[in-house]
């Protein structure tokens, strides 16, 4: 019987993160799933709900942990908590937690201060947070012999592709979300630079786009399905595929799954 893989998911209490963990709970493979949320109560509630599902593998376990990626103290507390739990190795880190503030500003004639706040908070959560968290967890991800042993995923968006934004016929060309889109373009760069920094240390990196999904990110779910949005279960497919080893040929790229077809976004 194979040993459980240990996976840490940020923002795992709802949306894409939650449904990715649900898919892993229902996988025949064994996992130790560390679910983080900004509050411990939200993480515990999500773990309780997921634990009520019949696991496909009885060895799979869920661990709730509080984490605010915008707080250095919270990141340090997470590292300490993992040590308390005697977790000395991570097989995967999924940087999923993120925010989108642009939608709340549309049609409101926002002030310069409000626009600046949207950029600063979005960049802090979507870029600086994942970078600092990943750096803090590298000792648990790296292997001494350099063999690929672990995976780091950055959940991004096709909206962050400058190539797609430059195409006049792209469905992403005219989506008005400058703070969010800029943050995802920056996150893709974080992924590339991390890949260079840890080359030969046994860690593979990806940025992955779940696509436009019916989640709470960026505002209410209402109307998103009518606009062609995927279910969060469908969006989780690309993350599960990486975690289960089906995208090893796309290391260091921005990957997606659209209409059941695996693809790669340009920069």
UniProtKB/TrEMBL annotation:
Biological processes, Gene Ontology terms: secondary metabolic process
Coiled coil spans: none
Family of this protein: Belongs to the short-chain dehydrogenases/reductases (SDR) family.
Gene Ontology CC: one annotated term: cytoplasm
Origin: domain of life: Eukaryota
Name of the protein this chain belongs to: NAD(P)-binding protein
Organismal lineage: Eukaryota, Fungi, Dikarya, Ascomycota, Pezizomycotina
SUPFAM superfamilies, per database record: NAD(P)-binding Rossmann-fold domains (SSF51735)
InterPro entries found in the cross-reference section: Fungal_SecMetab_SDRs, NAD(P)-bd_dom_sf, SDR_fam
GO molecular function annotations of the record: oxidoreductase activity
Pfam family, one: adh_short
């Amino acid at each position: 019987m194979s040993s459980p893989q240990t996976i840490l998911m940020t923002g795992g209490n709802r949306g894409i993160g939650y449904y990715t963990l649900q898919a892993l709970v229902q996988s025949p493979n064994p996992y130790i799933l560390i679910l983080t949320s900004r509050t411990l109560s939200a993480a515990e509630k999500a773990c309780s709900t997921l634990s009520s599902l019949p696991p496909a593998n009885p060895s799979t376990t869920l661990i709730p942990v509080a984490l605010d990626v915008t707080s250095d103290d919270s990141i340090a507390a997470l590292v300490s908590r993992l040590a308390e739990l005697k977790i000395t190795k991570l097989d995967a880190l999924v940087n999923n937690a993120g925010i989108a503030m642009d939608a709340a500003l549309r049609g409101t004639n926002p002030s310069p201060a409000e626009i600046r706040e949207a950029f600063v908070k979005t960049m802090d959560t979507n870029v600086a947070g994942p970078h600092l968290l990943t750096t803090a967890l590298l000792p648990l991800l790296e292997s001494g012999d350099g063999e690929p042993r672990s995976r780091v995923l950055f959940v991004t968006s096709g909206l962050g592709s400058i190539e797609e934004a430059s195409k006049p016929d792209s469905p992403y060309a005219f989506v008005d979300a400058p703070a969010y889109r800029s943050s995802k373009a920056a996150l893709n760069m974080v992924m590339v630079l991390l890949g260079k920094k840890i080359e030969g240390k046994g860690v593979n990196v990806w940025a992955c786009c779940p696509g436009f999904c019916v989640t709470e990110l960026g505002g209410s779910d209402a109307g998103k399905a009518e606009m062609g949005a995927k279910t969060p279960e469908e969006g989780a497919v690309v993350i599960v595929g990486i975690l289960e080893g089906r995208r090893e040929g796309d290391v260091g790229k921005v990957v997606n799954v659209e209409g059941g077809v695996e693809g790669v976004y340009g920069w």
